[in-house]
Design goal:
64% of the residues lie in helices and 0% in strands. By secondary structure, it is mainly alpha-helical. The chain has one domain.
């Protein structure tokens, strides 16, 4: 895996303190903790990607009224 060095400027001291505390509680370095946060965020779909995937799915052929009646039936 190729890696890059990333520098983040102007992070408020209070935020850094919170992140250091969380990293320490996880028994990892601040760098490792931030890498995990970045990897976790990068692995998630953004809204545009999620909607694109949903739009590409094949229709299941159910109308809105059908869905409402299924929900209502489940409440009885």
């Amino acid at each position: 895996m190729l890696t890059e060095t990333l520098e983040v400027r102007d992070v408020p001291s209070t935020d850094v303190a919170v992140l250091r505390k969380r990293a320490s509680a996880s028994k990892i370095s601040l760098s490792a903790y931030l890498r995990e946060l970045i990897r976790d965020d990068a692995s998630r779909l953004d809204m545009e990607e999620a909607l694109s995937r949903i739009g590409a799915r094949e229709s299941i052929g159910v109308e809105g009224e059908d869905i409402r009646s299924y929900i209502e039936a489940g409440r009885r």
